[in-house]
Amino acid sequence: MDFEGIDILSGKQFSRENLDQVLGVAADMDERLREDRSLDLLDGYVMGALFFEPSTRTRLSFETAMHRLGGGVVGFAQAGTSSVAKGESLNDTIRTVNQYVDVIVMRHPEIGSAKQAADVSTVPVLNGGDGAGQHPTQALLDLYTIHVERGGVDGNTIALCGDLKNGRTVHAGVELYKHYACPLIFVAPEPLKMPAEITERLRAEGVDVEETADLESALAKADVLYMTRIQKERFEDPAEYERLKGSYVLTREMVERVNPDVTIMHPLPRVNEITTDVDELPGAAYFREARNGVPVRMALLAMVLGETN
Ligand code: CP
Predict the structure, then answer these.
(1) CA angle 180, 285, 8 (to 5 degrees)
(2) Residue of 107, 127, 137, 138 to mutate, ligand 1, most atoms within 8 A of C-beta
(3) pLDDT 10s per residue in the chain (309 long)?
(4) I need a labelling partner for 58 at 20 to 30 A (CA). Which of 51, 105, 262, 290 fits?
(5) Ligand 1 mean position, distance from CA 206 (Å)
């Protein structure tokens, strides 16, 4: 598929062929990045980074990716510094930013906001997270991380643990893993289970999905353990957050006892769901995962702008 001009809004939009294309271009960017500090593929292009919600990794890795490609960046890191604070609508903001930039990366608290932006935008929109909806560029860098860490994605058993109800990274990720025949284990307390619509659809599509609340039994079977944060900002009832926030804590003792060969991932930020003594284990991949955001986002920017060579 030719990626030039497309929006990246959801994990659902990709075929296996598309995903292998992204992995290939990301690997090429990674190799070039290790040889050269910067490339000039996007010299003269400008990216608009519109972040209506807090971010460290998504915003900074997209900005780094654009700089490493020789392009420029404009934008804002909180809605309060844009004219949204004066009552400007999302549509008008996008139409205005279209006058300045060649591509937009947007994070916004509302599900569907990236699609809304893409519908009015004249330049490609890359969804950097829309509420509890989707986070497709994170899912793509997660896929790339599994590819690098495990020597391929096909057939790996992936356990996803934590807030699967609100987790946009896992909502996007499962739509990619299904193309690689990865058995999936969903580990969550009852109130934070993966939405039934997603679980049932995956099963109907032939994906092997197990659901459990028991982290240790899932860890024992997993090639990849993908931990996620219980997301305080998604809870309407603070007492419910307090009750659930410590549901899962992965410790070094647990990994060494149950499955020392597992690859441990996390989109970050973490709060307390992985103790810091796990960080030095060889399978603790989450900071390497954060680094992979740069080559993967370089690939996506170059692909949607039609400038990969
Ligand atoms: N993984 C991720 O989306 O992190 P940020 O919220 O820091 O961007």
Answers:
(1) 50
(2) 138
(3) 899 999 999 999 999 999 999 999 999 999 999 998 889 999 999 999 999 999 999 999 999 999 999 999 999 998 888 888 888 999 999 999 999 999 999 999 999 999 999 999 999 999 999 999 999 999 999 999 999 999 999 999 999 999 999 999 999 999 999 999 999 999 999 999 999 999 999 999 999 999 999 999 999 999 999 999 998 888 888 888 888 888 899 999 999 999 999 999 999 999 999 999 999 999 999 999 999 999 999 999 999 999 998
(4) 262
(5) 30
Token code pair at residue 82? 């844009």
Distance separating alpha carbons of residues 263 and 119, to the nearest angstrom: 38
Cβ atoms 29, 295 nearer than 8 A = yes
Reduced 3-state DSSP string for 187-219:
ECCHHHCCCHHHHHHHHHCCCCEEEECCHHHHH
Work out the burial of residue 114: count CB atoms within 10 Å of its CB; fewer than 13 is exposed, 13-18 middle, 19 or more buried.
buried
Per this entry, what is the length of the chain? Answer: 309
Contacts of 288 (CB under 8 A, 6+ apart): 145, 148, 149
Q: Which residues line ligand 1 (CB under 6 A)?
A: 55-58, 129, 138, 267-269
Sign of the torsion angle spanned by Cα atoms 54, 56, 60, 61: negative
Q: How many CB atoms are located within 10 Å of the residue 171 CB?
A: 24
Strand partners, 177: none
DSSP 42-55: TTT-EEEEEESS--
Which of 299, 241, 302, 239 lies closest to 271 in space, CA to CA?
241
d(CA 104, CA 123): 7
